[in-house]
Amino acid sequence: MKVAVVGGGVIGLSSALCVKERCPQAELTVVAGEFTPNTTGDGAAGIWQPPLWNVTQQELPWLQWTFDYLSRLYKTEFSHQIGLFCQSGYNVFTEEVPDPPWKDIVLGFRHLTEEELKRFPGYSYGWFETTLMLECKSYLPWLTQRLKEKGIKFEQRMIASLSEVCRDYDVVINCSGLSARTLVNDQEVQPGRGQIVRVHAPWVKHFILTHDMGTATYNTPYIIPGINTVALGGLNQIGDWDTGWREEDEKNIWHGAVQLIPSLKGARVLGKWTGLRPVRERIRIERETVNDTPVIHNYGHGGYGVTYHWGCALQAASLAAKAMDEVAAKTSSSRVVKSRY
């Protein structure tokens, strides 16, 4: 059974691994225009945190599966090698809000006290939690190596339509992210432009995510410490395709970060990154047929690729396994009919 996974980011590679582990005999190829270190995930901060409330009952298991999977990896001797670590921090709001539906997945979820809120001028409500961090610049090379060890092939090329791939494979798994807008003509997918400034600030030990209910998520200041750098951000410009660096946006990022932690004013800049999140109202995981080929879609994760990746990969692998069974049964039936004549 020949299977193609379209997309070389965290969704594509994790989907390929889940399919291979579920169907070891399948011959897999990952087809993508870009691989690590040039994917959107390579530049992301990598915090495990879902949307605040816009989570369906179908999605909650995907979140739990991902957190459980990362928790198991965290206990291994190579967790640091793949950029995986625990981190505690704050979500702060300009008004009182309901608890998120995933509060029991993270560790130590609790509301902030009035004394704690004094640290965040302009914010009147919040919570504290411990979650997991996964830096894709380390995780994606590790996933790539695991896939190669299992005999999975990699093909770097740009494709104009999913039908190009469907001609050569029995089953296709579409993890094309933002490219799904053109590959399958899904106009619901649109870019969520972001900029991140990375600084040397080892004294910052907790993440801070701010929220204004009148704006899109990740469109207000955030500070997320990583293993070697601290990520400063606060942009989610929906519908903006510009991948260039904007000085005005950088100024706003700095202003927001220094308002939260004044000592960052003197932090040394180590890097700058611009990326386009594959934003969609709902993640798309479903099956359809393209040119008589079963296609499993798995895209539209926005800025939550790390948060959902393993759970969505397991779901996509389940759909792919069923499709492979049906293709095999159809092929077998066809051979039986021919043998009668």
The 3D shape can be described as elongated
Q: N-to-C SSE series? A: EHEHHEEHEHEHEHEEEEEHEEEH
The CATH H-level superfamily of the domain at 1-46 and 136-186 and 280-341 is NAD(P)-binding Rossmann-like Domain
Helix coverage percent of residues?
Answer: 25-40%
CATH C-level category of the domain at 1-46 and 136-186 and 280-341: Alpha Beta
CATH architectural arrangement of the domain at 1-46 and 136-186 and 280-341: 3-Layer(aba) Sandwich
Task: Estimate the mean pLDDT confidence.
Answer: 94
Structural class: alpha/beta
Low-pLDDT stretches: 335-341
- The number of helices is 9
* Strand segment tally: 15
Main pleated sheet: 9 strands, mixed
**Gyration radius over CA:** 21 Å
CATH topology group of the domain at 1-46 and 136-186 and 280-341: Rossmann fold
Quote the distance from N terminus to C terminus.
26 Å
Fraction in beta strands: 25-35%
Catalytic activity: D-dopa + O2 + H2O = 3-(3,4-dihydroxyphenyl)pyruvate + H2O2 + NH4(+); D-phenylalanine + O2 + H2O = 3-phenylpyruvate + H2O2 + NH4(+); D-alanine + O2 + H2O = pyruvate + H2O2 + NH4(+); D-serine + O2 + H2O = 3-hydroxypyruvate + H2O2 + NH4(+)
GO molecular function: D-amino-acid oxidase activity; FAD binding
Pfam families: DAO
Binding site for FAD: 302-307
